[in-house]
Amino acid sequence: MKVMILTQTFDRPTIARLSLEQLAGVMPRDAELHVWDDHSSEPPDLTGIPHIAHRFPIKLGIAGLRVQQLQFAWSAGADAVYLTDSDALHDPEWFAAAVGGLLLAPVSCLYNSRFHTNATIEELAGYALRTSAPGISMMFRRDALALAMPRLSFCPRSWDYWLPGEMGDRIATTLQSFVEHIGAGGIHSESGDFEHDRAINPTPYLEEKRRQVITQLQLCGSRIPHRANDAIGAPVGLELVHDQDRVNHAGNVQADGQQHVDQQRADAASGEDRQGREQTEQVAHENLSLRV
After folding, report:
1. Quick one: DSSP state of residue 198?
2. CA-based R_g, the chain, Å
3. What is the DSSP string of 184-251?
4. pTM for the complete prediction?
5. Hey, is 184 helix, strand or coil?
6. Were both Cys, which of 44, 132, 167, 229 would link to 16 (CB 3.0–4.6 Å)?
7. Cβ atoms within 10 Å of 253's Cβ, excluding its own
């Protein structure tokens, strides 16, 4: 079972470091974390975080990067693909919750956002079945990727609304958020504060982790730039999407930080709690194997 986690960075090095370090500590051990930097003026220092690094020769913007990420995962034979952002925080139980959603729909989401509640069709077993979901948290089954591939030659800026509609199916979003968004300075936040993109009904773990991360950002004097036009920079023409001569998917594997990430895992869950989470992840893998 091949699970790929895909994210991107652009000019927010402090929160990117905090976010991806936290994610590495609570993701399944056999999952691959892939990070694309979209030509940051100040790339984040991800030393000690096991990941596969990617950087295209040209700047793509959010829609272009999402297209490339999904095409890359499909070509790599991923059974499940999880898209997230580098200003997200994940609950230790996020993976099991994501797989639970995939038993109801071909795409699942862990971030209950006020921007998508009006897309709800019905609620079922702790999930809201919707026609859209925020790009900060989307897990695709492989059959969903198969539907998406022919439609990726064009992907507008509002891809998180457009793609599910093109696929003609629903997204299962957890009613309790297993992902929190540290969104100051992002596309939705005109005021530049940390309140605008808060999750609906986050887990207690995320409530506390959010407070810790915001305190860290404030103590280190981090100023998160406001980028009103695009969450990770202005997009360029997507006619380059299929130009493989100009797109380099070769990643730089940085696996030397496993000891550091093991400590992050211990911080997230230790002793019996950690053993229980690993058992839950194993059951989730088995459920996903049966579904895909």
Report:
1. P
2. 18
3. TTSTT-SS--SSTTPPSSB-HHHHHHHHHHHHHHHHTT------SS-TTS----GGGTT-GGG-----
4. 0.79
5. coil
6. 44
7. 11
Instruction: Say which amino acid occupies 140.
Output: F
End-to-end CA distance of the chain: give it in Å, rounded.
Answer: 9
d(CA 97, CA 178): 8
Name the β-bridge partners of 174. Answer: 127
Interval 27-57: pLDDT, tens = 999 999 999 999 988 889 999 999 999 988 8
Residue indicated by tokens 């839950």: 280
d(CA 43, CA 51): 15
Whether 198 is in a domain gets the answer no
Closest CA to 138 of 188, 87, 98: 98
Is residue 27 in a domain? yes
| Count of domains for the chain | 1
Residue 276 belongs to a domain with what CATH number?
Answer: 3.90.550.40
Sequence-distant (6+) residues with CB within 8 A of 143 are 106, 292
**Could you report the per-residue pLDDT of 246-281, keeping only the tens digit for each?**
233 333 333 334 444 445 455 555 555 666 666 666
Cα gap 137→213, rounded to integer Å: 19
Q: Which tokens go with 114?
A: 């006020």
Q: From the DSSP assignment, how many helices (H) and strands (E) are in the chain?
A: 8, 12
Give the residue numbers spanning the domain of 166: 3-179+234-291
Q: Which helix (H) or strand (E) holds 271?
A: helix 271-291
Which stretch of DSSP H or E encloses residue 97? helix 94-102
Distance CA 209, CA 211 (A): 5
CB 39 within 8 A of CB 233: yes
